Amino acid sequence: MSNSLPLAYSHLPQILAKCHLKISELRKKLKSLGVNVNPKSLYRLTSPAPLQRIDARIVGAICQTCAVGIEDVITFEPPKPAFQKLSGIEQKRLDDLMSKHTEEKLSAAETRELDALSAKAHELTMANARMLVAQRRALNPARNPRPVAASVRARPNQAVKRADSSKNAALKPRAAASATKT
């Protein structure tokens, strides 16, 4: 028998997708119920990483707001990625518009519709990519270290050249170059 404790996971992203809510909208709804929540607390609940702490007050308010049970929000199984995609109708319309665009037979209204559907498809693709990256980082934290910021400084004996905004600035480097050639 293993001595490790079971890990708890949040399924809030899937619940938000079903309710068609964003974190900011959920926060407003929770605030209207009298539950003032730090946005970071909600964002932590959208992470695929195991939960460190659970605030029962927040989870209870989420359950009430989204009409779900606590077992829907918190489980002991990691969430499976829920990819977002266009509805069947939107996808068919996008396909039709793209075909017409290839044939150069789009009206101005259809062009705007194509642009809007393309933008929506792009947003969904980017959201899916971010979700996969976050899940990968959560599952393999040692293999995916965070990048370390580095700063570069000039050595004390190196001169720092500054651009001269005067019209004669273009002549100065040439004069200096010709003086060094002689």
Q: Helices, strands, pairings?
A:
Blueprint: E1 9-10, H1 12-19, H2 23-32, H3 39-44, H4 56-66, H5 70-73, E2 74-75, H6 88-102, H7 108-139, H8 171-181
Helix pairs in contact: 6-7
Taking the alpha carbons of the first and last residues, their distance comes to: 85 Å
Q: Please, how many helices? A: 8
Structural class: mainly alpha
The rounded Rg comes to 27 Å
From the spread of the alpha carbons, the general shape counts as elongated
CATH architecture of the domain at 9-75, please?
Answer: Orthogonal Bundle
Biggest sheet strand line-up: 1-2
CATH topology of the domain at 9-75: 434 Repressor (Amino-terminal Domain)
The CATH class assignment of the domain at 9-75 is: Mainly Alpha
Give a quick precis of the structure.
With about 180 residues, this protein is an all-alpha fold.
Protein traits:
single chain; 182 residues; mainly alpha; 434 Repressor (Amino-terminal Domain); two-stranded antiparallel ribbon; 8 helices
Task: Describe this protein's structure.
- 53% of the residues lie in helices and 2% in strands.
- With 182 residues, it is mostly helical.
- Among the domains are: 9-75, 434 Repressor (Amino-terminal Domain), CATH 1.10.260; 88-139.
- The chain has a two-stranded antiparallel sheet.
- The longest helix is centred in the last third of the chain and has 32 residues, at 108-139.
- The radius of gyration is 27 Å and the shape is elongated.
